[in-house]
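User: I'm writing a tutorial on reading structure tokens. Could you give me a worked example: one chain, its sequence, then its tokens, then a sentence or two explaining what the tokens reveal?
Assistant: Sure. Here is the example chain.
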Amino acid sequence: MPRIDAPTVVEHHAMRRDAIVSAARETLVAAGASAVTPAAVAAQAGLARTSVYQYYPSTGALVAAAVEAMFAEANAALGEVVARGDDPRERIHGYVTAALQLAARSHGPFHSVSIVDLPPMCRARVRELHEELVSPLRAAIEELGVADPEIVVGLAFGAISAAAQLVDHGQPLKTAVESTVRFVDAGLDSAQRGGGRGRLSVV
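And here are its predicted structure tokens:
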């Protein structure tokens, strides 16, 4: 009988699944979707490859679980921070700050997750998860009543993503947050004066 590393079989399976997903996330972030194989994830998690297949029977399912977990953590954290803001600007500032903190800590979805590199079964779901990620930012920007919220959301999110890359390459987090907040604020000021034109899809 297999060794049970928890008080109950249910807890044992939950612990194993969490360990596998965590290892898959680390591999995805470090080396991309093509590196997320059952063998690589098993080695990262300190498990037998057969243990990985027990929970995720294909590479596609394993990648999907890693991507889902990565976005779920970010979406929950951002939603919580934004909800604490008393007005739209404060919520936007909170979103920028929390997003860059997440990027600095875990290289999450604010770094590029290339859809073309993902298994087909993941691509539609990633678009949905990305929309959930942007949703708190979009709601706050729309509440400001800017001239063209869609393009403003796209530009603001683009600034956050660019700042995340700078943090990844050594830019101090505090500097990146302050600069990005100022940049986004300037764009919001312009848009509130009616300067926004055109359309931009952020997904």
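What the tokens reveal: The domain at 67-203 is CATH 1.10.357.10 (Tetracycline Repressor; domain 2). The chain has two domains: 1-57, 67-203.
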